[in-house]
Amino acid sequence: MTTASHKSVTVLDRVRECLARNEPQKGLDALNHCQDHSPQADNARAVCLMRLGRPEAAVALYRKLLLSSGVLMRQDAPAQFKSNFAAALLMTGNLSGATALLDELRGTDDPGARRLRDALGRWRRSLSPWRRGLAAIGIPPQGPIALDYAPGEL
User: 13: which residues sit within 8 A by CB, 6+ positions away?
Assistant: First the structure.
């Protein structure tokens, strides 16, 4: 194992510990201090950003990480990164983008996608009959959608 990859593993372990203690800012600080920009580190950065209530910044990071040519999803992208991206999109109010990503992940065994689908179902059931009716005819609720769990998986 090279020194750089060993350093990355150590930092990611530290980030996991920070997230487990609900200290995403400390995790983000550790990542930014080490200057690691591997896909795993950038995913961890985006998870920290979501948990800090900055989903727009997480979406921007996932777009750079997961989209080729700025518009096409990289086929080799890990399911975990895609489900995290879907969570960030949902948190910014992009229901159609999040749903499209979750549809792409259907049939995978990704725990993040499963948690997000469950949370989305709970959210839909919490809508008033009026809002559910509007959604049924293609008019989704406007604005961010709050998740009832700490978003993102490392």
Answer: none
Q: Extract the tokens encoding 12.
A: 């990611």
DSSP line for 37-87:
-SHHHHHHHHHHHHHTT-HHHHHHHHHHHHEETTTEEPTTS-HHHHHHHHH
Residue 152 in any domain: the answer is: no
Chunked mean pLDDT (size 10), the chain, 154 residues: 51 96 97 92 98 97 88 87 96 91 92 94 88 80 84 94
- On whether residue 142 sits in a domain, the answer given is no
- Number of domains observed in the structure of the chain: 1
Full domain range(s) for residue 7: 3-136
Residue 6: CA atoms inside 13 Å, Cβ hemisphere, count? 3
Q: For the whole model, what pTM was predicted? A: 0.87
